[in-house]
Model the fold of this input.
Amino acid sequence: MTMPSDMRAYNWQVIEEFRANAGVLGGPFAGGSMLLLTTTGRTTGTPHTAPMMFKDHDPRLLVIASNNGATAHPSWYRNLLAHPEVTVERGAERFEATARTAEAAEREALWANLIASHPFFVEHQQRAGTRQIPLVVLERRA
Done:
């Protein structure tokens, strides 16, 4: 996949389109595997929204901090390490969640399930070098 030259502008375009079509039956994101994750900036304290792929692990959701195989964690992941309370937008639904990084046996099981359905993440892990790609579990807050 070729990455856009201005990722920030591209992401804002995706976010605007997602929100404009969130409640549209059969819209471009209907039944898809994309959500918007809003984290709190670790240094600024301001909200930051990022579109990302998710995998449903009912009642939890899984997001993958692959950063397209970069050797550094994505900024949204570093934000949620400092502030695990996040906002999730999935289609027309919006809810508060707590994010945590899957560890040990849980991570191994989630990773096996992920690469069975999305094998391109193996290549992301190879490109990431020694950085283990974090798998983040989002649990809805009551």
Q: What stands out?
A: The chain has four helices and six strands. The radius of gyration is 15 Å. The helical segments are 7-21, 75-82, 104-117, 120-127.
